[in-house]
Please model this.
Amino acid sequence: MNCDLHCHSTCSDGLLLPGEVARRAAANGVTLLSLTDHDDLQGLPVARAVAGETGMRFVSGVEVSIEWGGLQIHVLGYAFDESDALLRAGLEGICSGRIERAQRMSADLERIGITGAFDGAMRYAANPKLISRAHFARYLVEIGLCRDLHAVFDSYLVPGRPGYVAHRWATLADSLGWILGAGGVAAVAHPGRYRLSRSELRRFLGEFRDLGGQAIEVLSGSHTPEQVETFSRLAKEFDFLASRGSDFHGPGESHVDLGLLPPLPETLKPVWVLF
Ligand code: AMP
Ligand code: MN
Ligand code: MN
Ligand code: MN
Model:
């Protein structure tokens, strides 16, 4: 089994069309794929159809943007009913504020002399409803302000830096309510990415589990080997199923290509036993 349960298409902030993502995954040897666009389900039908043509299994996915403890955190949903009205309305609600947030981000960048960021970022957003910091980051690289996306997020678009503005995302309870209500399974995305102390992380994982969350991403394109060990230990301690996802956004932009992460440690129970 080569399962990749985390990646993005042009329906959010990825660079490839949903069908291209599925084809690339199959070519890389993925046997079970989930497309997990941010706050959006539009890419799922095409990705599923192309996956079917290649003989690769496919499970519905989404990466929900929430706020917890003042931080932006991502909760992955899998194997839910895509037509579920509450899930769809919840995701719409998250997206509805994104354009206005992008205008405020652009105004904040203008304060330090960076002009045209809204239009510049919009040119990268194939799905304008899903305008994200990744699109702004591409524009800031385009105008030569930074070498690459990672350099952008060192100096811009993050709390305390130009181009960052607060935004009201969903709550942890909202995200689990929508995912579980639609018959799905919830997983914590890339737990190593959050600026949480050890005790805050444990509190977060406890709340996530109490609300019905079942899995955490142990293997992620953004985790170091030490983080893989830490989250393997926490998965066992909290009795979470373990997930594996590249978080692929596009060729040249991601740490790891689709399907190319190492396998999950054998002592962990994989989340895909449920699919
Ligand atoms: P948003 O949903 O608009 O807040 O945008 C978040 C997106 O920005 C993430 O999904 C990533 O694609 C990208 N991003 C955030 N932080 C980083 C980072 N440090 N390096 C690369 N991409 C990042
Ligand atoms: Mn992204
Ligand atoms: Mn994420
Ligand atoms: Mn992601």
User: Anything to note?
Assistant: The mean pLDDT is 97. Residues 13, 38, 65, 72, 132-134, 149-150, 153, 249 surround adenosine monophosphate (ligand 1) (CB under 6 Å). The two ends are 13 Å apart (CA to CA).
